[in-house]
Structure formats: structure tokens, C-alpha cells
Amino acid sequence: MESTNRYITIKTHINHGEPKESHFELKTAAFGLSVELGSNDVIVKNLYVSIDPYQINRMKSYSPSQKAINFAVGIALGEVIDAYGVGRVVASGNPKFEKDDLVAGLITWGEYSKIKDGNMLNKLDPMGFPLTYHVGILGFSGLTAYGGFFKVCKPTKGEKVFVSAAAGSVGNLVGQYAKLFGCYVVGCAGSKKKVELLKEQLGFDEAFNYKEEKDLKSTLKRLFPDGIDIYFDNVGGEMLKVAVSNMNTFGRVAVCGIISEYTDEKRAAPDMIDVVYKRITIRGFLATDYMNAHADFMSTTCDYLRTAKIKVLEDITPGVESIPSAFIGLFHGDNVGKKIVKIANE
Ligand code: NAP
Fold first, then answer.
1. Which of the two ends of the chain, N or C, has the fewest CB atoms closer than 10 A to its terminal CB?
2. CA distance linking residue 128 with residue 83, whole number of Å
3. What pTM value is reported for the model?
4. Helix ranges restricted to H, the chain
5. Could you tell me which of 338, 346, 280, 334 has the C-alpha nearest to residue 18?
6. What atom in ligand 1 is closest to the CA of residue 188?
7. How confident is the model at residue 118 (pLDDT cuts 50, 70, 90)?
8. What are residue 233's DSSP bridge partners?
9. Would you say 43 and 34 are in contact if contact means Cβ atoms under 8 Å apart?
10. What is the pLDDT of residues 304-324, one digit of tens each?
């Protein structure tokens, strides 16, 4: 059976500055909805796709990230773009999947995906939760927050935690896990509305709008009079520098991402004398490093969800054609919580 597939591609590499609508194209192509006898292909109707900042590094002609791990490889101009998401199997030659199975894993920024190798795709049991939770809080954003906070930062109760991009997908969960664990938590975000959300709805002890602060180093000094023990870094740049200058002895910095540096050539320059004399650990990590914590992460987070201890922040826009603007919006702070594009009705 034949249908058509509308999907997003990049027309040019995005080597400098922020992504713009003109970098993207919505293409339409004929698409087979059946699999040939003997093939291992899985045809998936995409339902929800994840919109993630790391994709910009795949859209450059070169980024060191492209050689680090399979899912970060460069995107070829005009080709489909793979991305995390949830879908329903239309046809399968792969014995792991059957027609109508719900699946989560690497699908594409399009209406349909043809998955050649089912290794990055899993059957999904929604466990009574909305499917979008499996893109965000119960997907890679959640695992990133959980693995990064508990395994990289190794918190103890009462420690002082700072989170940047705190109203974003990963950041809001780090802050909530840290509060539930018994830490003092301060977050920063790029608007008044986000700051209010952090303090009034997510239980952060303090929050500030980094765009309005004149001297970020003094802001952190005021909010952490006894210093920062843990900095969960989502942004890099200036914020990393000022956080390090306010850290305590044996402080830990989990470098989850450095979104401010993805579109700007300015690099973070923490004072390395602080790092040496305060014996600060600065450690990058990838969520996939913590697959061995996946079962713990799921049981803890599902429990928090069922007992309403954790709040879910989702920001969903409809239609494959809205993927470019959803993605561009990440770099302007348009999203509140997990950015997802709904491709089709469940
Ligand atoms: P997100 O926080 O939901 O969205 C990005 C947010 O970053 C925006 O809403 C914006 O919020 C903020 N931002 C954008 N440009 C900025 C700039 N120049 N300076 C400061 N803040 C800026 O995205 P996410 O998916 O949770 O990802 C957060 C970070 O984690 C990213 O760096 C991402 O690459 C990284 N990440 C890493 C892993 C891993 O495995 N290591 C996995 C997932 C994500 P404001 O309104 O606050 O500016």
C-alpha cells in the first residue's frame, strides 16, 4: 500500500548563529506502508516527536559531537531527520514488533518512519500514563535529569543545588528531583513567567530571570550565601563561569548541555584556580551512560507521578509543519517544559 510522507529536512547546514525557518524544508514523498517479504523493516506512524537542542549540532557541517555516539551523527541535507518519539506500528518484518504495537525510540521528524534496524526502538507499555509522558518525563529528558542529578552530582540531603534552563524539559525535573531528595534548589530561567512557575508551582526555593540580572556572580552570591554544592549546567557560557566562582570545596558540576554555546562561538571560561583549589569536579555526561539506572528511574518517577509528587511540564504544538518553529523556539526560550510536536491523533 502507498501513501505520502511529509517530513522535515535541512536545506543548508547551520554553522553560525541560531536556526531560522529558511534552514528547513517540508518535503513530501511517496511512502510504502507495507514491508517486503523477508525484510526486517518496521513502518511506524509517528504520533509524537521530541524537539531537542542537541539536533542543532547534527545540523552543522562539523561538530565534535557528531563522532561521539550514533544518534548524534551529522544530518545530510535533504534527508529525513531521526528523533526520539512515540508511534504506532503500521507493518513490520521485524519479529520484535507487530502491527498496531505502540513503540518508543528513534523515529523521524515526519509523519511516518521506516526503521531499518529495530535496535533503537522498543515496544511501549504506557502504564496508564499519557503517551507524551513517554517522550518527556518518562523518556530521555527524565533519564537525563535522573542520571545526571543522582549519578553524576551524587547529592547528599541538604546540599545547595543550582540548575540553569530550569523551566526547560531537563531542568524542571532536576529541580523537582532535588527538592524531593531534600536539597535547597535555585533555578534560573529567561522570563518572569518561568521564574514564577519555578517558585510557585514547582517548589524551587528561589529562582531568577538571568536576562534581567546585571551581575550574575553577585546574584548567585546573594542566593547562595553559603556557596553552591552542585551546579546542573544546561547552558554553559557565562553561567558556568559564575557558578564555578560561587562553588564550595568539593563542589560538582554536571555538564548536561551548553545550549548558549551551540549558537554562539563564545566559550565558558571558568577560573581554573577555583577548580584546583576548591577541588571542583566538572563532568560531562550523556543520558545513555545511565541505562543501567533506567529501572530505578522508571520506578521512582512513576511512583512520584502516581502520588502527584512531581509535576509534568509539557509544551505541545500540532502538525509536522510546526517542527521547525518548535525547534527554533528552543533557542529563544519559547518553550515551557518538554517541547513535543504532535504529529497524528492516537
Ligand atoms: P529545554 O531546556 O527544554 O529548552 C531549551 C531552553 O534553554 C530554552 O527554553 C531556554 O530557556 C534556554 N536557552 C536557550 N538559549 C539559551 C541561552 N543562550 N542561554 C541560556 N539559556 C538558553 O531543553 P532540554 O531538552 O531540557 O535541554 C537542556 C540542555 O540539556 C541542553 O543543553 C541540551 O543539549 C542538554 N541535554 C543533554 C542531554 C544529555 O544526555 N547530556 C540530554 C538532553 C538534553 P530560558 O527561557 O530559560 O532561556
1. N
2. 24
3. 0.98
4. 55-58, 140-146, 169-181, 192-196, 216-223, 237-245, 259-262, 272-277, 294-306, 323-330
5. 334
6. 47
7. confident
8. 255
9. yes
10. 999 999 999 999 999 999 999
Whether residue 1 is predicted with pLDDT greater than 80 in this model: the reply is no
Tell me if 257 sits within 8 A of 286, measured CB to CB.
no
Other C-beta atoms within 10 Å of 144: how many? 27
Average pLDDT, the chain: 97
- Which residues fall within 8 angstroms of residue 52, CB to CB, at 6 or more apart? 83, 84, 140, 330, 339
| Ligand 1-lining residues (CB < 6 angstroms) | 52-54, 140-141, 144, 165, 167-171, 189-191, 194, 234-235, 256-260, 285-287, 330-331, 333, 335, 339
Rounded to whole angstroms, how far apart are CA atoms 247 and 278? 8
What residues contact residue 2 under an 8 Å CB cut-off, 6+ apart? 30, 31, 32, 33
Residue 153, φ and ψ in degrees, nearest 5: -80, -25
Ligand 1 centroid to Cα of residue 259, in Å, is 5
Q: Whose CA is nearest to atom 31 of ligand 1?
A: 257
Q: Which residue is associated with the grid cell 517540508?
A: 26
**CA distance readout (Å), 289 to 84, 133, 147, 300, 321:** 17, 21, 8, 18, 33
Whether residue 24 contacts residue 10, with contact meaning beta carbons closer than 8 Å, is answered with: yes
Sole residue written with cell 506502508: 33
DSSP for 292-308, written as a single string: GGHHHHHHHHHHHHHTT
